[in-house]
Amino acid sequence: MPATTDQEAALRIASGRKPFVEPLRLGERLKEIRLANRWTLDSVSQRTGLARSTLSKIENNQISPTFTAVQKLINGLGIDLPQLLSPPKTQAHTLGRRDLTRSGDGQQHPTPTYEHELLSCQLAQKRMIPFKTIVRARDFREFNEWVRHDGEEFLIVLDGCVLLFTEFYEPLRLEQGDSLYFDSDMGHALVSISEQDATVLSVCTSSEIALESAAARSCS
Amino acid sequence: MPATTDQEAALRIASGRKPFVEPLRLGERLKEIRLANRWTLDSVSQRTGLARSTLSKIENNQISPTFTAVQKLINGLGIDLPQLLSPPKTQAHTLGRRDLTRSGDGQQHPTPTYEHELLSCQLAQKRMIPFKTIVRARDFREFNEWVRHDGEEFLIVLDGCVLLFTEFYEPLRLEQGDSLYFDSDMGHALVSISEQDATVLSVCTSSEIALESAAARSCS
DNA sequence: ATGACAAGTTCACTATAGGAAACAAAGTTT
DNA sequence: AAACTTTGTTTCCTATAGTGAACTTGTCAT
Question: Of A30, A49, A166, A189, which one is least surrounded by beta carbons within 10 A?
Answer without folding.
Answer: A49
